Amino acid sequence: MSIPALRSFPTVYCVKPSARLVRRHSRLGGGLRASTVAVNGEVGLGIRSTEKKEDAVKEVADEEDRGLEPLYDDGFGAVTVKDYFAAAKALSKDDGGPPRWFCPVESGQPAVEDAPLLLFLPGTDGVGMGLILHHKSLGKAFEVRCLHIPVNDRTPFEGLLQIVEQSIQYEQDLSPNRPIYLVGDSFGGCLALAVAARNPQSDLVLLLVNPATSFTKTPLQPILPLLEAMPSDLHVTVPYLLSFVMADPLKMAMVSIENNLSPPETLQKLAESLTSLLPLLSELADIIPRDALLWKLKLLKSGAAYANSRLHAVQAEVLLLASGKDNLLPSAEEADRLFNTLKNCRVRYFKDNGHTLLLEDGINLLSVIKGANMYRRGRQQDFVTDYLPPTLNEFKKTFYEDNRLFHLALSPVMMSTLTNGKIVRGLTGVPDQGPVLFVGYHALMGIELSPLYEEFLKEKNTVVRGLGHPVLFGVSTETSRQELSRFDTVSMYGGLPVTPINMYRLFERNQYVLLYPGGVREALHRKGEEYKLFWPDQPEFVRMAARFGVTVVPFGFVGEDDVLELVLDYNDQKNIPYLREWIESINKDSQRVRSDSTFQTNTKSVTQTLLHSAVHIFHFRDSVKGEEGNQDMYLPAIVPKVPGRFYYLFGKPIKMKGMDNVLRDRKSANEVYLHIKSEVDNALAYLKRKREEDPYRSISQRAVYQATWGVSAQVPTFEP
Known about the structure:
Helix content is 39%, strand content 12%. By secondary structure, it is an alpha/beta fold.
């Protein structure tokens, strides 16, 4: 494949080659050329000696082996929109070269092994820096490359298609099992869809951001012909005015402003940021001169027509990010159309954002990908090995912003049991090393999960991988206006479908695992069933825990009846015709956990037997005998109460290592199982009794204490 010689960008926009690139290029006999940009798969930063090359490989290999730890710093928020204008202005200088790829230096080298490739296809500006706010965070999990289309380049849409296709083909020849992500912003969305339509055999994942497939419906359509007749000396006003149509200056100015500032400090920072940002908008005239703008509009028109004519051929996975306040394109309505037209399309809707979504405050593209379960490193998604832990920024946003008032109002009490039986406040009694299996009571709608996730990350710096019903991770209930939801949060903080093979592989990797044997039946219980366990008769998770020497920690949770009141339960809703039909419709195609999981070829026969037998415990329909066990998915009608307090008690760890009799003898396994269940019941009884002794159970008492000692002070509770 011929690769054009390109002129160099400034050094700030290049990156040294990753170890994987060094290895594969040396394997193919290709040398690294002395260029500062990555072009069609070739990286140029000349590593001239074999010794230096080996040192580079070793350095990166060591980093990849470490992987990503929970609460790692992804660097998101360190770059502002002002950096975009500075970079775009530098790259908009005409160098006479053709379109080409470059690797942002901020992205660095991926911290995960076999990271997928991410190709950014720019919007109308063409400079390729529209992803600048996300370079560093995406660079931890992807090999990032951006397409730059020089300002005076006149390559037609079909020519741009060929450039992208050649790069994809080159990469797939090198790594046939690695997916390639195409991030298409506005015009780039048309380009991504066209590439996917022409290459249905390629393993592509499309991330479309307000795609310009609806360009013919833009509200600006009537004034577009006037641009050609406008005098050149007035062109400077056009990009300036368009910038206010395309973006929300306030949201762009809010980027990098900390959310924990006081209102006066926030206003001061916003005023400073906005004052420095507004003059930069006029520089769009330099980035997109008059002739270039007219050409880009023609390119948009042809690209939209080309992509729309081939939507039926798109086989790739698609995640569409749509803005509700896009004044340039009807992106919300276009999301409805594409959601219903494309075969495999999901949507995340941002109702308060404008057209330039990737340059606005609060949008972290990697977080969106993770929450939608769209990150994978192979042909099939692996919920165990493809999981990326939450970052420090994600943790702060989830628990210090989104759920701050919820946790502040509840002031959760976490207690654990030491090996000598003593109950202490905090998680000291929880083992520091896995594998650990937490088994407990599932409160109404899983209301107990958020404080649990937060405490384990804060105190243990570890993620608890919660096993949940597959419907939480499916797409059957999603809509074309699907906003970020609690389901996305569950996925981001370690949730995965409850299957025997997933449990097996988590134990194999010494993970913290959360299992609710009562499953949906407990989480969607009926009136008067608070703190009642609905566990199956099969003790198979005990046998699997013994097989891997897992430490089992039974736990109880109390507090849902102090926060929520169940108004309409399953029985009530089944007697209401409209609600009964809705329940039947959402359960008609509900996913079921099946026993045909794929086993690894080197799995021992005893483990296969355990996995097959363990399937019974994961059937949410049949996990409890009798009519009570046949629990459909439904949405309980609840009303909030004046909040009480949440209480958790993690019982004395039960070490399963060395319990070989549990593997061989079903009676022994059942005895251990019943012991674990009784420990959960005992924890529930203990918490219900002891909370009556808590002088700060009432929110008013806690409010007085926090007003005196500060909101960050730990509110006392009963003596264990």
